[in-house]
Design goal:
With about 200 residues, this protein is α+β, with helices and mostly antiparallel strands. It is built from six helices and eight strands.
């Protein structure tokens, strides 16, 4: 019976994120149970393709899809063995060459003390991964060589042998464009002494 409802009567269509249900059948067989519209759009599958499908049957599928299904099957097994939810991050490659990153949460659903279903929710983290990559690149560039800093004024000598304020250097090398300024406790005490605020 094709249904988009769990046995616990949770309507996954009402959930505003990709959600799929995997049935755990005897012999640790994993079968597609239900898939909401967000998951159908995100993973580019249809309900007919997912529901009732043996998720470890790979004949006729692209290599990219086979690898994704095998990775998922490993996570289903880990969830069943642990009897507790687990989270993973995966890169999803599509046949058209595009890719997405997603964070998946696998939640076991119990019937009579046995894991009978797994609810998988996904959140796209492609932008987060891209931001992390850009930050790592910036840090690598920043740390890739010695940086000469003036011991007096704290200006930094750049690649072109000219001196720059730390703000200009960081904006140019790391892409930072906004800064906040303050005083550390030692400088604050020193400044207060200059203004005669010290008793």
């Amino acid at each position: 019976m094709k249904s988009n409802q769990l046995s616990t009567q949770v309507d996954i269509e009402a959930i505003g994120a990709p959600v799929s249900i995997v049935r755990v059948e005897p012999g640790d067989r994993f079968v597609g149970g239900a898939v909401n519209r967000h998951a159908r759009d995100y993973y580019r599958v249809t309900s007919d393709w997912w529901i009732g499908r043996n998720l470890e049957e790979y004949e006729g599928l692209s290599e990219v899809l086979v690898q994704a299904l095998k990775r998922s099957a490993r996570n289903y097994r880990r969830c069943v063995r642990a009897r507790f939810q687990l989270c993973t991050e995966t890169r999803i490659d599509f046949a058209d060459g595009n890719c997405k990153w997603a964070r998946h949460t696998f939640v076991p659903i119990f019937t009579d003390q046995e894991v009978r279903q797994i609810m998988v929710t996904s959140i796209e983290i492609t932008e987060l991964k891209e931001s992390q990559r850009q930050l790592e690149d910036a840090m690598t560039r920043m740390l890739s060589g010695l940086v000469t800093i003036c011991s007096c004024c704290k200006n930094i000598r750049g690649d072109e042998q000219q001196w720059h304020s730390i703000e200009k250097f960081a904006a140019k090398r790391m892409g930072f464009h906004q800064f906040s300024h303050g005083l550390c406790p030692a400088c604050f005490d020193k400044e207060m002494q200059v203004f005669g605020s010290d008793p």
